[in-house]
Design goal:
The chain is built from 23 helices and 23 strands. It is of the alpha/beta class. The strands form 7 sheets. It has a 7-stranded mixed β-barrel. The chain has a 4-stranded parallel sheet with strand order 3-2-1-4, with helices on one face. Strands 10-9-11-12 form a 4-stranded parallel sheet, with helices on one face. Helix 1 packs parallel to helix 2, helix 7 crosses helix 13 and helix 17 packs antiparallel against helix 18. The protein is globular and about 75 Å long.
């Protein structure tokens, strides 16, 4: 990247031996969610994960890709499968030439890396095992992708979460409000806790996996044939990961029934999974807010972190595409599909999920349409000309550099190189820093830098209004990632963020400690910047989990945060912080903000942080509280000598630019 080699420590490699085969009715998504739960529990942060074993002989490549793609959710640096005959078959089915197939296979065989059923098992740091025949139909939620719950237990699990306190990953609904409901104006329908208001078939891997997409189409086809309908309050969408999907669904006769159930194709790529579901109808929002309801979303995406999918769905479940259709038909997540009907057919008889769930043979027969190499050659052979709207955008070819527009609210020149010295300053101590936030465990990059909805009372919304952008055109944080003014204001603006400095209030709020005032995180950071006060963030375990979102580090830097002190970090975010000149610090093993009695209102200093910083160096954190001072040992979360250099230069961009300047 930018001419820089990628430095990593020699990783531990965890092997996952797969045996057996999935049972009838169990999908690749169910297998993936099971593995996510298993690997997150074991702990694979900063490790590689390789899947091996006899189970690979019956595992299609599309299923393998679904598993590998969720490596960020189980915490690994990478999850991968060996190349074998199944990989060659996939290349053939997706339109690659015979020359490419031959070249790939000969290369991997020559390298001794082509797997066969007789291949010796590799050596691993650790080995986990999963018999795929034990996998059950599953969802994950309502707040994290590794919180898998069996389909048969979803109702029980959701009802328990409703009543559980917030600090126990629940929703804290009082006992006398568990049966609350609110009418949806003009529809004759009533919303309750657990009503499904978003049902989305979305995500790059699930919607590129023919087996689950065809499965969803078959569920829809059978549901339409039985006369089932969805409640009007359910917002549905279908966002394939490839244009090929709508072609093979249409060829198999499955696009029409999906359309009949309002699963219309809305685009290709990231939609609901990253918060781009669009607004719910106002009567639905009014009912949710009026009844203080825990509404639900069910989506086939990879991530369901708090506040990510929609500001109005507090319970968010990941599920296979066929189950997304099922929950949309039911209109609620508090349903036991085994005992309760999904709806009433046109003949007046109850219809159960088992009545519309396709058999393996039905899926296999419909999937023949997805194995036509011509479809892939047709869609990708002329991909550069396939989007006339994109190609019609005027491009200024007369300038060697980009012409920044001062009036743009989408793209602005970032301030990273303002007042840029040719030589870096020496690494210096941090003195009398304030805690901008005091956070708990599993703070994700979505909590740090949300990609979805821009809340009406947020600093980012205020900025857009001041620049003449009305609410209907605010779009999302993700769409405005080219404008640091919006993204900095959106840092730590997640509506579900839990900051102990303002507990129990949720959202992008903090306390400006010199006066005790509660204000937005952005406004407080700007006040501290005016005061010349450096900032730190205190956090728990697995800080920065989830997407490798660069703005989670950029925004942290632009708020004036000098260091993040956590019990542990997710690898990519730790690296990104260093890449922006923010120092990751780890508590010593067994220590935490709670165990050390930190309240967050202290002054924090790093007196021995200096230019001779070493990877993994123990530093002294001097803590000045109202009732006295003490020193706490902490560890620099810098793992390699090159990371020391990146940090010394104020980040990788500064380091690279100075190299370019020196070579000019």
């Amino acid at each position: 990247m930018l001419g820089q080699p990628i430095y990593i420590k020699m990783p531990q490699v965890v092997g996952v031996r797969l045996t057996g085969a999935l049972r009838e009715g169990v999908t690749a998504t169910d297998l993936t969610l099971t593995l996510v739960q298993m690997l997150r529990k074991f702990g694979v942060v900063e490790k590689f994960v390789e899947f091996f074993g006899p189970g690979l002989d019956v595992l299609p490549l599309a299923d393998r890709a679904t598993i590998a793609n969720m490596a960020p959710e189980y915490g690994a640096t990478i999850g991968f499968f060996p190349v074998d005959a199944e990989a060659i078959k996939y290349l053939q089915n997706t339109g690659r030439s015979a020359e490419v197939l031959d070249e790939v296979e000969r290369y991997y065989r020559a390298q001794g890396m082509f797997r066969t059923a007789d291949s010796a098992e590799p050596q691993f740091t650790d080995v986990l095992e999963l018999d795929m025949s034990t996998v059950e139909p599953s969802l994950a939620g309502p707040k994290r992708p590794h919180d898998r719950v069996s389909l048969s237990k979803v109702k029980e699990s959701f009802l328990a979460a409703l009543a559980a306190p917030l600090d126990k990953d629940g929703f804290g609904v009082p006992a006398d409000q568990l049966g609350a409901g609110a009418p949806v104006a003009g529809s004759g329908e009533t919303l309750r806790h657990g009503s499904v208001t978003i049902a989305a078939i979305t995500s790059c891997t699930n919607t590129s996996n023919p087996s689950v997409m065809v499965g969803a189409g078959l569920v829809a086809k059978k549901a339409v044939a039985r006369g089932l309908h969805m409640p009007a309050y359910v917002k549905t969408s279908l966002a394939p990961g490839s244009r090929v999907v709508n072609e093979y669904l249409a060829k198999a006769g499955l696009l029409e029934p999906l359309n009949a159930l309002r699963f219309n194709i809305v685009g290709y790529g990231c939609t609901t999974c990253i918060g781009n579901s669009g607004p719910l109808d106002e009567p639905v929002v009014d009912a949710i807010n009026g009844g203080n309801l825990v509404a639900a979303a069910v989506l086939s995406g990879n991530r369901n972190f708090e506040g990510r999918v929609s500001p109005h769905t507090r319970a968010n479940y990941l599920a296979s595409p066929p189950l997304v259709v099922a929950y949309a038909l039911a209109g609620r997540v508090d349903i036991d599909f085994e005992r309760e009907p999904i709806g009433t057919g046109s003949d007046g008889q109850p219809v159960y999920l088992r009545d519309i769930w396709p058999s393996g043979a039905e899926v296999a027969q419909a999937m023949t349409a997805a194995s036509d190499p011509a479809l892939y050659r047709q869609e990708y052979g002329n991909v550069a000309q396939s989007n006339p709207d994109w190609n019609a955008i005027p491009v200024d070819t007369g300038s060697a550099v980009y012409n920044w527009r001062a009036d743009s609210t989408y793209i602005q020149q970032p301030p990273f190189f303002e007042q840029f010295p040719q030589q870096p300053s020496a690494i210096a101590p941090v003195r009398n820093a304030r805690a901008l936030l005091m956070l708990g465990d599993f703070v994700t990059t979505d909590h740090i830098s949300p990609a979805g909805n821009i809340a009406a009372n947020s600093p980012a919304a205020r900025y857009l209004l001041e620049h003449g952008v009305q609410k209907a055109d605010w779009n999302s944080y993700g769409s405005r990632r080219g404008n640091d003014r919006v993204m900095t204001r959106g840092t730590f603006a997640n509506i579900r963020l839990k900051n102990a400095l303002v507990a129990p209030r949720e959202g992008g709020w903090t306390r400006y400690l010199p006066t005790g005032e509660v204000m937005s995180v952005y406004d407080a950071a700007m006040r501290y910047k005016q005061d010349g006060t450096p900032l730190i963030v205190l956090a728990g375990k697995l800080y920065g989990a989830g997407s490798s979102r660069d703005w989670a580090a950029k925004g942290t830097y632009l708020l004036g945060v000098r260091a993040v002190l956590a019990e542990s970090f997710e690898r990519i975010h730790r690296s990104n912080l260093i890449g922006m000149g923010v120092l990751p610090l780890r508590f010593k093993e067994g220590d935490s903000a709670a165990s050390l009695g930190l309240k967050g209102d202290e002054l924090f200093s790093l007196p021995d942080l200096a230019d001779d910083l070493k990877p993994g160096q123990t530093l002294t954190l001097h803590v000045q509280a109202a009732d006295g001072a003490r020193d706490i040992p902490v560890v620099a979360g810098i793992d390699t000598p090159i990371e020391v250099e990146y940090y010394r230069h104020g980040g990788i961009l500064n380091f690279v630019l100075r190299q370019f300047m020196a070579a000019a």
